[in-house]
Design a protein that fits this description.
single chain; alpha/beta; Rossmann fold; eight-stranded mixed beta sheet; two-stranded parallel sheet; 8 helices; 34% helix; 20% strand; globular; Epimerase; aldehyde dehydrogenase (NAD+) activity; NAD(P)-dependent_oxidoreduct; NAD(P)-bd_dom_sf
């Protein structure tokens, strides 16, 4: 019998994940919150649903979206969620539906922004007090999910997402202040898709994992190279590292016996450069 996965928030990452799981034989349902996205999702072969999460309500076109073996929550805080309590309240609305439909396995896509920048390496458990409201909101949402005994949750804290049409050179364009030379914590979308797939296929639940490429080049090296490849202006860099953190993903690598497709973000830039020469 085919297993079913529902992806709440089928955007840039969720759609790629859904397509990959379809190829592996999963039945995939995906949710969006706009008509344009709905049409795009239907073309991909993923069963499309409309789900809109708000702090006070959850709008769903069909409850069958939540008839699933695994629910993947991939809805990051938006600018309107800057107040720390707004995003966790959205997650509370989702949790009510999870309990109502008796979903037993939940995977929550979080971010390394939950870690405080203490100029050192950080592992799971080293959260501290995140600088950004979005990081504090994600940390509260993680806690709501992990502490709920009605279902099992695994949390993946991804670094900054790169790959395909996400040109990293644009991340630092039009900045007035110099770019600090701190280590980057990035991960390619292919690795994200592989990691999520392996966790649900291996039934690894009740865990929190960091997921960032094991190598962390400096921002000066990475973004200068990205800008050069893209024929964009080289940003102004500072030799100062500023405040930073280095994400340690050893726990994930050990639990999954995972080998990153892109061990370093520089591997991705090298690939892009090679393709540019071929064209």
């Amino acid at each position: 019998m085919r297993r079913t996965v529902s992806i709440l928030g089928c955007g840039w990452l969720g759609t790629a994940l859904g397509r990959s799981l379809l190829r592996k034989g999963w039945k995939v349902k995906g949710s969006v919150a706009s008509t344009q996205s709905y049409n795009r999702l239907e073309v991909s072969g993923i069963s499309a649903f409309y789900v809109k999460a708000k702090a006070q309500s959850l709008t769903v076109d069909y409850n069958s979206f939540f008839n699933t073996d695994v629910l993947i929550i991939s809805i990051p805080p938006t600018r309107t969620d800057c107040v720390e309590d707004s995003f966790p309240k959205k997650i509370e609305q989702v949790i009510e539906k999870v309990q109502e439909l008796s979903i037993k396995k939940v995977l929550f896509i979080s971010s390394t922004s939950v870690y405080e920048s203490k100029n050192t390496e950080v592992k799971e458990g080293d959260e501290g007090t995140p600088e950004k409201a979005s990081g504090r909101a994600l940390l509260k949402a993680e806690k709501l999910l992990l502490e709920n005994p009605a279902f099992q949750t695994t949390v993946i804290r991804f670094g900054g997402l790169i790959g395909y049409d996400r040109n990293p050179a644009r991340f630092v364009q039009h900045r007035n202040a110099p770019v600090f030379d701190s280590p980057v914590n990035l991960i390619h979308r292919d690795d994200c898709v592989n990691i999520i797939s392996q966790i649900i296929e291996k039934d690894i639940w009740g865990e929190v994992f960091n997921a960032s490429s094991p190598e962390h080049p400096g921002r000066n090296e990475f973004y200068a190279k990205a800008a050069k490849i893209s024929d964009l202006p080289i940003p102004v860099f500072s030799k100062d590292k500023g405040s930073f953190k280095v994400i340690n993903s050893d726990k994930l690598i050990g639990a999954l016996e995972y080998k990153f497709v892109y061990q370093s973000p520089m591997d991705y830039l090298k690939e892009v450069e090679e393709w540019a020469y071929r064209i």
